[in-house]
Design a protein that fits this description.
The protein starts with a strand and ends with a helix. It has a 3-stranded antiparallel sheet. It has a 3-stranded antiparallel sheet with strand order 6-7-8. Strands 4-5 form a two-stranded antiparallel ribbon. By secondary structure, it is an alpha+beta fold. β7 and β8 form a beta hairpin. α3 packs antiparallel against α4 and α5 packs antiparallel against α6. 46% of the residues lie in helices and 12% in strands. It has a single domain, classed as Cytochrome-c3 Hydrogenase, chain B (Orthogonal Bundle).
Length: 368
């Protein structure tokens, strides 16, 4: 046989979650690829149309498990647009804090997964362990480590506990100090550089055509970030830089995230400093009884800049107690199916798993 099929997933450790890819190879070279989603968390959009507005909050976070808070925020923003709700200032800052902590945790997960797919197994142990310190903060703030159900229409559930900002800064100090270790063991490692430079190249024109967003788009030279382009929460009042690179390859996509984690640490410190000066007060707007809450007819789109790219929720209300229509605009269908199926052609078998991690997808975002 000159050509034969290989199956990666849905349980392959090089796959980001329950996701499968069938490839056809000629020797060691990929000549055809087909993504096969549908292994978990299916049908959320129709399911959510059968739930009241407030009941969606514990469900939407499942659409991207490593970065659940951005999905909560995008849904909440769409509902706030529909219901003409203004989030109190302190609630906006706490929402921004939670989102940046979620971004850092997701990037740590990405660094470890990508490194492991290349056979460098020290970094996953370090980054997953450091990520746990952020999960400790989430557990203290929300009562949960993974699905926080903390951002909801009108703001956030409750204020931060005493001394929380100091504990956040302490974790940021630890992670910032660890970055030089990450560089030494991975980002400056010749194996990472050799197996990422020139691999999976994406041009600016192709990225825009395929509706690529987030760090994958910024790696092609496009300075696009919802936090800057259409600010939400407290981002309009915060100072941060949106980095770009022009190579558009696996190396650039990984390094964009490496640079951005430093920007997120700076953002977290700005927010904690602001929260210390801000008097304790309202963190959520008054809303009607959630079980009987009827939202005026209309349509709205709420979007955020998640660690994976633009996450958006399109909502239609018919004036009832639940969404008439709900549609999620996630980055993973573009990145994990259309782009990946093109990008993997001509690569080697050993590059399949690293490319899947490098594009950083959420399988339930596809299966929703």
């Amino acid at each position: 046989m000159k050509e034969f099929d290989l199956f990666f997933g849905p349980q392959h450790p090089g796959v980001t979650g329950n996701f499968s890819v069938r490839v056809k190879v000629d020797g060691d070279t990929i000549v055809w690829a087909k993504a096969i989603p549908g292994f978990l968390h299916r049908g959320f959009e129709k399911f959510l149309e059968q739930r009241q507005w407030i009941q969606a909050t514990p469900i939407v976070c499942r659409i991207c498990v490593p970065d659940p808070d951005h999905s909560e925020a995008a849904y909440s923003i769409a509902v706030e647009h529909l219901a003409d709700i203004e989030v109190p200032e302190r609630g906006r800052y706490i929402r921004s804090l939670v989102l940046e902590l979620s971004r850092i945790a997701a990037y740590l997960f990405y660094f470890g997964g990508y490194s492991g797919s290349l056979g460098l197994y020290t970094l996953p142990n370090w980054t997953f362990g450091d990520r746990d310190y952020i999960l400790d903060l989430f557990e203290e703030l929300t009562g949960a480590r993974v699905y926080h159900i903390y951002n909801f229409p009108g703001g956030v559930r409750w204020d931060t506990p005493p001394g929380f900002e100091d504990r956040v800064d302490k974790v940021m100090d630890h992670i910032e100090a660890r970055l030089k270790d990450y560089d030494e063991i991975f980002f400056n490692h010749k194996l990472f550089i050799k197996r990422s430079e020139g691999i999976g190249v994406m041009t600016r024109e192709y990225a825009l055509k395929m509706e690529v967003t987030g760090p994958n788009l910024r790696a092609t030279g496009v300075r696009a970030d919802v936090r800057k382009d259409d600010p939400y929460a407290a981002y309009e009042e915060l100072d941060f830089h949106v980095p770009t690179m022009t190579e558009g390859d696996s190396y650039a996509r990984a390094m964009i995230r490496r640079i951005e984690i430093e920007e997120s640490i700076k953002l977290v410190r700005q927010i904690t400093a602001k929260l210390r000066k801000m008097p304790k007060g309202e963190v959520k707007a008054d809303i009607p009884n959630p079980l009987y809450w009827k939202i005026p007819p209309g349509e709205a789109y709420g979007k955020v800049e998640s660690s994976k790219g633009e996450f958006g929720y399109y909502l239609v209300s018919d004036g009832g107690t639940k969404p008439y229509r709900l549609q999620v605009r996630g980055p993973s269908i573009s990145h994990g199916i259309q782009v990946f199926e093109d990008m993997v052609i001509g690569q080697r078998i050993a590059d399949v798993a690293p490319l899947m991690f490098n594009l950083d997808i959420c399988p339930p975002d596809i299966d929703r």
